[in-house]
Amino acid sequence: MPPSVDSAAAPPRGHRVRQTIAQLRERILGGEWAVGGRIPTEPQLVAALGVGRNTVREAVRALVHAGVLECRQGSGTYVVSTDELAPVVARRLTADRMAEVVEVRRAFEVEAARLAALRRTAEDLAALDGALAAREAAWRDGRFDEFVAADAALHTAVVAAAHNGMLAELYASVGTALHSTIAQSMGGALEPERYADHSRLVEAIRAGDADRAAIEAGAFLEPTPGA
Question: Which residues form the signal peptide (predicted)?
Answer without folding.
Answer: none
